[in-house]
Automatic annotation (TrEMBL), chain A:
Residues annotated as domain Clathrin/coatomer adaptor adaptin-like N-terminal: 2-416
Name the record gives this protein: Clathrin/coatomer adaptor adaptin-like N-terminal domain-containing protein
Major place of residence: membrane
Subcellular location: Endomembrane system
Residue ranges, compositional bias (Basic and acidic residues): 562-572, 706-729
Biased composition (Polar residues): 547-561
TrEMBL record, chain B:
Keyword check for Ligase: no
Subcellular location: Endomembrane system
Name by which UniProt lists this protein: AP complex subunit sigma
Swiss-Prot/TrEMBL keywords: Membrane, Protein transport, Transport
Origin superkingdom: Eukaryota
Family in the record: Belongs to the adaptor complexes small subunit family.
UniProt cross-references to Pfam families, sorted A to Z: Clat_adaptor_s (PF01217)
Family annotation (InterPro entries): AP_complex_ssu, AP_mu_sigma_su, Longin-like_dom_sf
Location of the AP complex mu/sigma subunit domain: 1-143
Main location: membrane
């Protein structure tokens, strides 16, 4: 580099060689800004054409676009533009083409316009393209180029027409209101398009693989697209008089050979135009046919083009999803393709395809995809996963057929993805924390929770109170799996829902039990299975079934400390959900390692406090005396209830010295209340027009946001029920045993 | 429009860089590095289109590339261009180079970088397709060369 500097200083006659070396060095990435002055000098003082050409090239490549050096050259560019010599003009235009600076373009625009009117076709073409740039950067100047554009498109020579259409496209993009200037030219373009495809006479110039002038065809089609989008932007829906438009489009669609790349490009663009302008009938079918052929082609490029066009059209609303429903399977199949770009496109297309009728099928395939395929750590997979998950959430929100389905899908999603630490996937952190597949043994300091999904579930439940017991039932069913796979987000959701809505399941069970003894069980099973039958089949495949046939399934290993026999698990057919179930679930959550996550921890403790406040009778149980005359089942049930009560008290008192002040406050209050004799009175809900009792104020804090009268009734029933249970027959005791032995 | 034309060899060394928007040298090198990175990861059977951010001002760009022997020819385009048509354009450019240099190879591009740029100027101007007929491109280029020799 030092040599170069000295060479420049010495005014070496071989200055062109030096400049060439400079260009090469710049391309390699070394800073050469010290040489900008030399370049300017070369351009200004160029004696011959080769020097000038090189100088302009160096100008476009080397000079910083914001620098003042560029302004110094404006004068030389201007002189060259005005000169009569086509060669000087041409190189000046080339240079202008590469410079994107708005000030320079604005200054030199008046010198470009006259060139558009000259006879030299070569110069006119270049000038037209520079004008496109000017229109883009300075949209208010677009009007100046209208006459030139009109002129160009009416020419015979095809390359003129090409530049003309490009200029028109640029003008329309810059200023959509100018569309009405171009109607006659548009008609001419359509005619040209048709003649290119249909006529076999004429020059064979520009034949590429048997397609005449594909670039002009694509350019005209693009122009039509931009024209249609202008009118759409301006919200004009009246018909425009463009005769022969449909005829020429259908000629293009049927006439272009689809075996070669050039023909395919034309076909693809034509299909896109047909769909965008909303043509109907045979033309539309032909276009959709073309896209369908591309979808199943073995060339990846075509599949990519078809998928992206379909996704764009679906998003625009120009294509309805029922029209391409028969290609749904192909699109979903592309999800598992080897090529990651294709996978991304397929995901996009399938999410756009969702509507009320097919969302169940699509979402279940996507869930399967996330679960089976996206479980490696490569960056691609992580991106795909994140996109798929957020896509599913959005699609469910807009198109879910029933709130019940929405809820169960969200919970399934949380089940699959809640255990992954960070879906945004920063490679290093991720791999150090994860030591085995599928989410076990996570780093316990992970604080990434899918609280977005949890928030959606809670919002849904607050809107539809009839879903609350169903949600609690679902989540209780998922709890053992959640504990084994250490899924913190699911644990967080379980804690929230059990705390807020756990009592609704008990009440629901009570109501049903009151209605009809024998039918109640089947009613619950059948009501939950009838509305979700299709999804249940698919969920069954995935192993995420949420309804079971009575009494045949056993659950996988759990870590619940209080019950160590695994009875058959059957949430659906049991109507009499005992609140002890809620307690034992929360105990198992609190004592498992998944609770080391701070937020999950505090949520579970709060939930335990809420549930204790709602069912304080569990603390009434006395320890069983040997002398009491009870049957074995009665003894066991009383022992179990007593164990639950004492375990809850123990767990709550553990937090009396916790660092977090809220946990500490709640635990101390609750323990104090539990120690007093008047627990039941304390935990009564406040009547409508509240009195200001101290004790009741304490209760208010932990009472939750539920219907007060229902709670009261529920509690009274519970107390009566418990007393009745102590003297019940052995048949009902079996029931109770089964319930308590659920885990 | 076409935002950038990037020609890199198999080892990541640039052979031709042309950006049709304002970028400093450092930014250009970054973009080139990013494009090279994603290009080398592709298998030969996967499609020639890549979408994704390569560090340009416009984030919705796609990279259309073709692999010829030791060189990758990559055109970075925005949404208004048809990817299949650009594949053809890349081929036209390469054929024009072939005609001008008589069986072009990588060395030709290294030692005649300015000529490669001039030919590119004939095919693309300001990021838009100027001339797509190979015969026209080469004839204009020859005429320019003759004119230079005549004058100089």
């Amino acid at each position: 580099m030092a040599e170069l500097r000295s060479a420049f200083k010495d005014d070496n006659p071989n200055i062109t060689q030096c400049i060439l070396k400079l260009l090469y060095i710049e391309m390699m990435g070394y800073p050469v800004s010290w040489a900008q002055m030399e370049v300017v000098k070369l351009v200004a003082s160029a004696k011959d054409q080769s020097a000038r050409r090189l100088g302009y090239l160096a100008l476009s490549l080397l000079i910083d676009k914001d620098s003042d050096f560029l302004f110094m050259t404006t004068n030389s560019i201007k002189t060259d533009l005005e000169s009569g010599s086509p060669y000087r003009c041409a190189v000046a235009l080339h240079c202008l083409g590469s410079i994107g600076n708005e000030d320079i373009l604005e200054k030199l625009a008046p010198y470009v316009i006259p060139i558009l009117g000259t006879q030299a076709t070569y110069l006119r073409k270049k000038a037209a393209l520079i004008s496109c740039n000017i229109c883009e950067k300075l949209p208010d100047q677009a009007e100046l180029f209208i006459p030139a554009a009109k002129n160009l498109t009416m020419q015979k020579s095809h390359s003129m027409v090409l530049s003309g259409t490009q200029l028109m496209t640029a003008i329309l993009k810059a200023d959509p209101t100018l569309w009405d200037n171009f109607l006659p030219e548009l008609r001419n373009c359509i005619r040209v398009l048709k003649s290119l495809v249909t006529s076999h006479s004429g020059s064979s110039e520009n034949m590429i693989c048997g397609v005449r002038d594909p670039f002009i065809q694509v350019s005209i089609l693009n122009l039509l697209l931009v024209f249609a989008s202008c009118r759409r932007k301006l919200r004009l829906t009246d018909a425009v008089d463009l005769p022969g438009l449909f005829a020429s489009l259908s000629a293009v669609l049927t006439g272009s050979p689809s075996t070669k790349a050039a023909g395919r490009a034309v076909l693809h663009t034509a299909a896109r135009v047909v769909l965008y302008i909303g043509a109907g009938g045979v033309l539309r079918d032909t276009a959709l046919d073309v896209l369908a052929r591309f979808l199943t082609h073995k060339d990846n490029n075509l599949r990519y083009a078809a998928l992206s066009t379909l996704a764009a059209s679906l998003r625009d609303g120009t294509v309805q999803s029922n029209e391409i429903s028969k290609h749904r399977a192909t699109i979903l199949h592309c999800l598992t393709d080897v090529d990651p770009t294709l996978r991304k496109r397929a995901l996009d297309a399938s999410l756009c395809l969702c509507d009320k009728t097919n969302i169940r099928f699509i979402v279940s395939s996507l869930l399967k995809y996330i679960k089976d395929v996206c479980n490696s750590l490569s960056n691609n997979d992580i991106e795909m996963r994140a996109a798929a998950i957020s896509g599913i959430i959005l699609a469910c929100e807009s198109h879910s057929p029933t709130p019940r389905w929405h809820l169960s899908t969200l919970i399934n999603l949380l089940d699959i993805c809640g255990g992954w630490e960070n879906d945004k996937g920063v490679g290093g952190e991720y791999s150090s924390a994860k030591s085995s597949a599928k989410g076990s043994s996570r780093s316990v300091s992970a604080t990434f929770l899918r609280s977005d999904i949890a928030a959606s579930v809670l919002y849904l439940l607050s809107l539809h109170s009839s879903l609350q017991p169903y949600a609690v039932q679902l989540l209780l069913h998922r709890l053992p799996a959640c504990l084994t796979t250490m899924n913190p987000s699911l644990a967080y959701l379980i804690g929230c829902v059990l705390g807020e809505y756990g009592h609704t399941l008990v009440l629901h069970g009570k109501e049903r039990h009151g209605e009809d003894d024998t039918e109640g069980g089947h009613a619950m099973t059948s009501s939950s299975s009838s509305s979700d039958e299709p999804i249940d089949d698919i969920l069954g495949e995935l192993g995420l079934d949420d309804t079971t046939s009575p009494g045949t399934e056993t659950h996988p290993q759990t870590s619940v400390p209080t019950h160590d026999d695994s009875h058959s698990h059957d949430p659906g057919s049991k109507t009499n959900i005992h609140p002890s179930l809620l307690f034992s679930s929360l105990h198992s959550l609190l004592t498992s390692a998944v609770c080391k996550n701070v937020r999950v921890h505090s949520v579970c403790v709060n939930a335990l406090v809420k549930v204790s406040a709602q069912f304080p009778s569990v603390f009434d149980a006395q320890p069983v005396d040997e002398s009491e005359d009870l049957s074995d089942e009665e003894r066991k049930s009383r022992e179990d209830i007593f164990t639950i009560g004492s375990e809850t008290k123990r767990l709550l008192s553990m937090y009396a010295h916790h660092l977090e002040s809220e946990l500490q406050t709640r635990s101390v209050e609750m323990c104090t209340m539990l120690r007093s004799d008047k627990v039941n009175i304390l935990c009564q809900t406040i009547p409508g027009k509240g009195d200001d009792d101290d004790e009741e104020e304490v209760e208010e804090e932990s009472g939750g946001s539920t219907d007060e009268k229902k709670i009261e009734e529920g509690e009274k029933e519970l107390q009566q029920g418990e007393k009745a249970e102590e003297h019940q027959t052995s048949a009902e005791n079996d029931d109770l045993d089964d319930l308590l032995g659920l885990f | 429009m076409i935002e950038a034309v990037i020609v890199v060899n198999n080892h990541g060394l640039p052979r031709l860089l042309r950006f049709y928007e304002d970028y400093t040298t450092a930014e250009q090198q970054k973009v080139m590095g990013r494009v090279y990175e994603i290009l080398t990861k592709r298998k030969d059977t996967s499609c020639n289109f890549l979408s994704g951010d390569v560090g340009l001002k416009n984030p919705n760009t796609r990279v259309i590339f073709r692999h010829y022997a030791t060189l990758y020819f990559a055109f970075v385009i925005d949404e208004s261009e048809s990817p299949l048509a650009i594949m053809d354009l890349i081929h036209i450019y390469v054929e024009a180079l072939d005609l001008a240099f008589q069986s072009v190879c990588e060395l030709d591009l290294i030692f005649n970088a300015d000529k490669a740029n001039f030919i590119l100027d004939e095919v693309l101007c300001g990021g838009l397709e100027a001339e797509t007929d190979i015969k026209q491109v080469t004839s204009v280029y020859e005429a320019m060369n003759l004119h230079e020799k005549g004058k100089g």
